[in-house]
Amino acid sequence: MQIGVPKEIKEHEYRVGLTPGSVMELAHHGHTVLVETGAGMGIGASDDDYRQAGAAIAATAANVFEQVDMVVKVKEPQLPECAILSPHQTLFTYLHLAADKPQAQALMKSGVTAIAYETVTDAHGGLPLLVPMSEVAGRMSIQAGAHFLEKEQGGAGVLLGGVPGVQAGKVVIIGGGTAGTHAAMMAVGLGAEVTIIEKSTQRLRELDTEFQGRLRTLFSTRDAIAAEVKNADLVVGSVLIPGAAAPKLVTREMIASMAPGSVVVDIAIDQGGCFETSRPTTHSHPTFVIEGVIHYCVTNMPGAVARTSAQALNNATLPFVLALADKGITKALTQDPHLAHGLNVRNGQIAHRAVAEALGLTFFPLKAA
User: Fold this and answer.
1) How far apart are CA 35 and CA 12, in angstroms?
2) What pLDDT score was predicted for residue 284?
3) Are residues 185 and 75 in the same domain?
4) Torsions phi, psi of 262, nearest 5?
């Protein structure tokens, strides 16, 4: 199979769909890889690194798109990229269509087969291709939150870990999944006072055992969220419903109750965000202020640590890329129900139920699509 890797064009996105190591594995399996010149520069991989791994180098993204059978990316295709995809091609990348109807419609119009990293499942009900970036985003949320709590950034001037004789900062994390857990690890490590709010009692028990009393756990209710948000210095939103839009768990009224200069970080912004006041931001303009509270809602947080993120992502995606290339798209999807859950668009139709419901469009299951 001919596999293409274009350079990411989303603002301040430095990751790359395939690292040179992944290219070498694909070449070993007899596949050809075409990489756009400069695609790996954000992770320190030169064109020569890709050539040595067995790839050919294309001068432009258009050269890549017009020649390959499968396009492997990191972030969702921008509308100009959607316009040059074709029905014979497969796109494998993060899509997050539930919060992006224009992209969904553009992919449907292109006729491409679009498989989303974030809805591929595993035998345990997990999301193996979302996990590595959730780990990165969770850890970065505390790093970003601590930075914007600094007075010179407009924050309240709070040091999350405090110092002897001074109370530590209060961190509230909504959602105890992968991102929330890794946020908690960072916050606890800094010495902050940490509370995780989660709706699964089983997960609350696991978190209590995992952290051995170093944080508080609370069952998720509207009242509990309102009370904890009001007194927090930093709130991290990390809720997820696979394929669907994130629920708005923190209202504007709750945001208004926080002290001026407090910070909220919405990890769920790719899926529409879990704060009522959230809107997407970029690394060049990462924050905005509503009700005196700093909002950090960057849609590609892991892109800031591109080398770490690309390597972690490739560790997870490479087995699926190999399966799609070795077996062919249809056979790979029909043989692996977990990979099939990643199918979002095929033959101009939405092929994932949660995505279709979020967008108000008709759902066509795999066989029908």
Assistant:
1) 19
2) 94
3) no
4) -70, 165
